[in-house]
Amino acid sequence: MQIAVCDDDExxxxxxxxxxxxxxxxxxxxxxxxxFTSSIDFLCxxxxxxxxxxxxxxxxxxxxxxQAASELRERDENVRIVFMSASPEFAxxxxxxxxxxxxxxxxxxxxxxxxxxKIGGELSAQPDEGFILKSxxxxxxxxxxxLAFVEVMNKTVSFHLADxxxxxxxxxLSDFEGKLLPRPEFLKTHRxxxxxxGFVQAIDVNxxxxxxxxxxxxxxxxxxxxxxxxxxxxxxxxxxxxxxxADKRKRPAGxxxxxxxxxxxxxxxVWAGVLQSHGCIVQEAENGEDAVRLAxxxxxxxxxxxxxxxxxxxxxVCERLRKLTDTPIIxxxxxxxxxxxxxxxxxxxxxxxxKDTPAELFWAKVETRIRLSTSERTQLCYGPxxxxxxxxxxxxxxxxxxxxxxxxxxxxxxxxxxxxxFTPEEIxxxxxxxxxxxxGQTVQTHMSRLRRKxxxxxxxxxxxxxxxxxxxxxVPVKQ
Length: 479
What we know:
With 479 residues, this protein is α/β, with parallel strands linked by helices.
């Protein structure tokens, strides 16, 4: 497990380092750590893809943890971000940038270890095939899943890994084609380059743009082959999805469907009210039997499950639900003991919310968990407008609409929350991260171009409307 720890308190960094060392010894696990006392230093070294887990202090001078996490998310969508703070007041903000968890200081051994056990279990379920590379520098293992691309120059073959590490050896590219090209994710784009299609961000006329920002040339003779191979690769990924994941992607569009399981009617009224105020459709169950029946009846976006059910323990109900669905299950409880939370994670829960949690934080956690679980969707459809997330394409009435990368990102982010009015400051923060605010000129320029393209492609509807004095909102076609 690759872990980064960023905290401006050197004593806290030292203590966390001791806990991680203790965890490595007690579990016999491979744990490699990097420590930073400045978020700027951390971001300067960050490429994206090199860490499985980032422990990030919320309050740091200059660039704080929330701002650092926003930039981190742009470079790595999958990394698990765990915030650390002495106060829960920043929890809502943390979950809005995709926090995996929120640890309160002082961090205790039980909480940290249970969290690491859960993450370790998730990572161990992922295959990690590869090959051994022997060079003058020593012996290194090159995992296929982390190899972004290979290039040869002056009889030196360089293996570029997703975490930015480059392994080199004197050889020819043909020495490794037999290991890589039989695998469907690898493709030769040029006489001097092999590319892992899983790390491709975009394909231009004569180059491939990788997710880490590197560019790989495409020879003129291979342009059509590269495009066809990439399309086949994406289609193969969709075909090979497990049944549960495929079912999740087939979920019909519309408000989130949430199952609330609690034997206390008063509690159900409170939490259902919060969920419904955010546009969710809530189904209620007062026992495990009802919960299983409702879960089997149709697709759900989330299950909120009380731990202390009168007829059957919530953990037992969770295990039964896990056999029916892979939708996120969040436990609700009055109990805060770490052992109980560990038991909940072991039963298949993805988060643990105490019943004294403020409504705003409760919703932030639920929303984040649902968005993370549905981030694998490949298409968003709004009447004649189709957003293909895998290929980063937009179709309007079946015809492809040419958008710049930033325009595609703008359309995706606005469409995620239809009818919500985004201020220019919100849009700027979502797309351009930590750059200094320019007064709205950048947002206005890009939004004007995007709106003109959409209106020209489909004259019967304005998908993005300006709201005078407030900002912009996405308006889907009413079916």
